[in-house]
Write a structure and sequence with these properties.
Elements: H1 18-46, H2 53-72, H3 74-84, H4 91-109, H5 112-135, H6 138-159, H7 166-173, H8 179-203, H9 219-233, E1 240-244, E2 250-254, E3 257-262, H10 270-287, H11 304-318, H12 322-335, H13 344-352, H14 368-383, H15 389-404, H16 430-449, H17 453-458, H18 463-472, H19 482-490, H20 497-514
Parallel strand pairs: 1-3
Antiparallel strand pairs: 2-3
Helix pairs in contact: 1-2, 1-3, 3-4, 5-6, 6-7, 8-14, 8-20, 9-10, 9-12, 10-11, 11-16, 12-13, 14-15, 14-16, 16-20
The structure holds magnesium ion.
Length: 515
């Protein structure tokens, strides 16, 4: 392997140290592979003909192997270690070293056989999961789930951990996250959310079901609504795209090429609209990273939890506010028409209605974290070897009953509903709750800087909000580890009390004022 011997030109104030610049010059190769892989991943979900799947899977796996070999190449590791030993590095330079040392440690710890076994089993597990979900028959998926649990337990052992073995997997998605932190978060928010939910439901502000949930929309008209709303939020079309996929997602191909997707189910327009606002939050994070960090290891958002905090901020805190409902009503009335017979308050009710239900992705702000807690409890026990796949379904159903008062009628609305386990991933779900909690904490900070936040929303003046998020969070990319970034941005470590206060205000105090 011929590595570059000439360092990248200095970027004053960012990358000055020669050893770091030599790492960055050589990192370009890995970055280019990531660029290609991201484009392939986007294409797989949006454009690829169905039959292209096996070869796309093969090509992606080969590229991933190539990347791993480059990352672990003796020469590259040596360059990173040389940079790590330099004194007087600035925050950006230290960030580069931290991100790459972490990547190297993780890649080195997990043997190539496990990576391949996971890649091999994934398409079969996905096919089995789809069939099992279709038929509502957990037993068809169980053997694959068993294998995936085993592989994840083995990954945790290879990575190593302090305390609970699940910590090793949490850290993969959220650098430094532990069971202790998540237990503390859940202990704080779950009893509180349950109390708020009960009060809200007894007060009658929300109907049991909203009539707009069943109304069908014209797809072309809805696409126009989504585009108009994205434009108002400040989506830079010359640097970004909106496409359609089975599951909405965001992917950054480069700092100036970020793509989101949504889906059109044909009824209940808030689903596609809120997916768009959610993904906008993810996209904005990637689009507002400091351009000097482009094509370096610091280019992307720092973790799944911080990323989700940004999507939740836009979806829930901005998008599900009375001011937003008022502001977008003229667009809905113009394009969809049938919303004209509902006033803005009714649209707000439709966007924020709370109701315990089976499906996580459709859950409201008050019940969402219970869904995550159920998966977290099961995964934790799987990884500790305390729970077998045979007993997981019963645990799922009884936790649903205990926390949400409903029992899944089939595995389709129970243990088979999410794709994550079939993809092989465990340890990811908790970052959704962490994101909700961080979003509320960021809201507090934004309100202290922009006291008239919600008036800005009503006037569709999102620029100050975008700028504040850029300054506090986005511009840094992966420069600081997630917990440090949260502390720098909000003045304190992750604190679930902000979430508790936020939902109390939104679901108990606000409806009183609105009625
Ligand atoms: Mg998301």
């Amino acid at each position: 392997m011929a590595w570059a011997s000439k360092p990248l030109d200095p970027v004053p104030g960012y990358f000055e140290d020669e050893a770091v610049r030599l790492v960055l010059a050589n990192y370009r190769l890995l970055w280019a592979l990531d660029h290609a892989s991201s484009l392939m991943a986007w294409d797989t979900e949006t454009n690829m003909p169905r039959m292209g799947s096996p070869h796309r899977g093969l090509a992606s796996a080969e590229l991933a192997t190539l990347r791993r070999r480059l990352l672990l190449d003796e020469k590259f590791v040596e360059l990173v270690e040389r940079a790590a030993s330099r004194e007087g590095l600035n925050d950006y330079e230290r960030g580069v070293v931290r991100v790459l040392q972490r990547e190297i440690r993780i890649a080195r710890s997990i043997p190539e056989e496990i990576v391949w076994e996971m890649a091999r089993i994934r398409p079969e597990a996905l096919a089995a999961w789809r069939e099992a979900r279709e038929k509502g028959d957990y037993s068809r998926f169980k053997p694959y789930l068993e294998r995936i649990v085993e592989l994840n337990r083995s990954i945790a052992e290879h990575l190593g951990y302090e305390g609970h073995p699940y910590n090793a997997l949490l850290d993969l998605y959220e650098e430094g996250l532990t069971v202790d932190v998540m237990d503390r978060v859940f202990d704080s928010i779950l009893p509180h959310s349950r109390a708020v939910l009960e009060k809200t439901r007894s007060r009658g502000f929300y109907p049991e079901k909203h009539p707009l949930e069943d109304v069908e929309y014209d797809r072309a008209a809805m696409e126009e609504v989504n585009r108009r709303v994205l434009s108002l939020l400040g989506y830079p079309w010359e640097r970004a795209r909106l496409d359609v996929s089975a599951h909405p997602f965001t992917i950054a191909i480069s700092i100036d090429d970020v793509r989101i997707t949504t889906r059109y189910e044909g009824r209940d327009f808030r689903r596609t609209l809120m997916a768009v606002v959610h993904e906008f939050g993810h996209a904005l994070y990637e689009l507002q990273v400091d351009k000097n960090l482009a094509a370096t290891p610091l280019q992307g958002g720092v973790s799944s939890g911080v990323h989700e905090s940004q999507s939740r901020f836009w979806e829930n805190i901005i998008g599900r506010s009375p001011e937003f409902a008022r502001a977008i009503k003229p667009i809905l009335d113009e394009k969809l028409g049938y919303t004209r017979s509902h006033d803005w308050l009714d649209i707000y009710r439709y966007l924020t209605i709370v109701r315990p239900d089976y499906i996580r992705v459709e859950a409201d702000e008050l019940t969402y974290n219970f869904h995550i807690y159920i998966r977290y409890t099961i995964e934790k026990q799987f990884i500790a070897g305390e729970l077998g796949v045979d007993d997981a379904r019963e645990l799922w159903n009884s936790l649903m009953e205990e926390y949400l008062g409903i029992r899944p009628r089939s595995d389709r609305e129970g243990i088979l509903q999410d794709i994550h386990w079939a993809m092989g991933s465990m340890g990811y779900f908790p970052t959704y709750t962490l994101g909700n909690v961080i979003a509320a904490q960021v809201r507090g900070r934004i309100l202290s800087e922009i006291p008239d936040l919600y008036e800005r929303v009503e006037e569709l003046d999102f620029k100050p909000i975008r700028e504040a998020l850029a300054r506090l969070i986005h511009r840094w990319g992966s420069t600081y580890p997630p917990q440090e970034l949260v502390e720098r941005a909000t003045g304190e470590p992750v604190n679930p009390e902000h979430f508790n206060r936020y939902i109390e205000w939104k679901y108990l105090e606000l409806p009183e004022k609105l009625q």
